[in-house]
Design goal:
- The chain contains four helices and 19 strands.
- It has about 375 residues and is mostly beta strands.
- It has a single domain, classed as Porin, CATH 2.40.160.
- The chain has a 16-stranded antiparallel β-barrel.
- The chain is globular and about 65 Å long.
- Residues about 1-20 have low confidence and may be disordered.
Length: about 375
């Protein structure tokens, strides 16, 4: 990431500003050639140039100012980028379905915050990751990429990719514990749906003034090679609250070439419908590259005495670092449905209880 100091403009505006403030331009550009296929009656297959298969593409600006006395102010503006088409990713204004938008121009949908930090920790205001998303990102070998190896719990779950607060929340107030607590860390967030006190569900007399309000907390401990984190959160909706809880852990075996094992267990509910899932995986450094693999399983618990639709996915990938900023990668994935589930890889269609397969080859560059 290349650092750009605010030089002439800042210095001309105030004496000494150059020594106290800095701004960075940063980002990721990631693209992959992907082939996926479904199976069974009505299934499809697809070739595509996809974006963000290893790491989500983005363009951002961030900066800090030393306020003295151990205090610092900061800002962070980060926009998701679909570099295969030049489009941006949509944001959400109110943590509700009504606040969504279609992909189009760049928006600072990923993060848009101003913050104050010091010995007390950090207070952060704006749009940011929810506490319950962090475990999904940190304890998956494929991280937060959107490729065929990505976390099946996140892509299948009620509180995952398609939920307004499954990844981030707008209108949020977040607090992070300071980093000097003997390995303990934590994060709490409250976000507002911003409905007025007389707001009603359309066509009804049911109040939805609290819809889109999110509250969550995340606590963990990092000691040497071991890291464990527990998170829980709730988004309020008149039609039924979204509740998500998960626990993740990882352990790095330095004596085994730096092998890192990781896993996550996840539970959720949306009104009367429940879901649960688990993921196990590893990352193994090999020279300038790394091998990664994961197995994930997700079950939906519908209302009534009916079978639980279940999806499982096995993914295997390799990343080779050409430099500190540039890497090439390849991934293969196999997804299996049971009990009526119809999940598929990356935009194709598969029949109930059938499988989906895919491969991708890509390149990622950070700056």
């Amino acid at each position: 990431m290349k650092k750009f100091l605010v030089a002439a403009a800042a210095c001309s505006a105030a004496a000494g500003a150059c020594a106290q403030s800095s701004v960075q331009l940063f980002g990721v550009v990631d693209a992959a050639v992907t082939y996926t296929t479904g199976s069974g009656p009505g299934s499809t297959s697809k070739w595509q140039l996809s974006n963000s298969a290893n790491t989500f593409s983005r363009l951002g600006f961030r900066g800090t100012e030393d306020l003295g006395g151990g205090l610092a102010a900061g800002f962070w503006l980060e926009a998701g980028l679909q570099n295969d088409t030049g489009l941006g990713f949509p944001s959400n204004t109110n943590n509700q379905a009504s606040g969504g938008a279609a992909p189009g121009p760049l928006t600072f949908n990923r993060r848009s915050t101003v913050s104050l930090s010091g010995g007390f920790g950090e207070l952060r205001l704006g749009r940011d990751y929810t506490p319950t998303f962090w475990n999904t990102a940190l304890y998956d070998p494929f991280g937060t990429g959107g490729g065929i190896g990505a976390n099946q719990i996140y892509f299948s779950g009620l509180g995952g990719l398609t939920a307004p607060t499954g990844t981030r929340a707008s209108n949020s107030i977040g607090y992070f514990l300071p980093p000097n607590l003997g390995g303990f860390y934590g994060h709490a967030m409250f976000a507002m749906g911003e409905n007025d006190n007389r707001s009603l569900l359309p066509g009804t007399a049911i109040s939805n003034r609290k819809d889109g309000n999110y509250a969550g907390v995340r606590v963990g401990w990092l000691g040497g090679p071991f890291n464990v984190t527990l998170a829980t959160g709730r988004t309020t909706y008149a039609s039924g609250d979204l509740r998500v809880s998960n626990v993740g852990a990882s352990y790095t075996f330095e004596q085994l070439m730096g092998l890192k094992l990781m896993g996550e267990y996840y539970t959720e509910s949306l009104g009367a419908v429940d879901g649960k899932g688990a993921l196990l995986g590893f990352i193994l450094p090999i020279g300038a590259g790394e091998i990664k693999a994961s197995y994930a399983r997700y079950e939906r618990d519908p209302v009534g005495n009916v079978p639980e639709p279940t999806t499982s996915k096995l993914a295997l990938g390799y990343v080779y670092n050409l430099s500190k900023r540039t890497a090439v990668y390849a991934t293969a994935a196999y997804l299996r449905n049971r009990n009526g589930a119809t999940q598929a890889l990356s935009g194709v269609v598969t029949a109930p209880n059938r499988a989906s397969r895919g491969t991708e080859f890509g390149m990622r560059h950070t700056f």
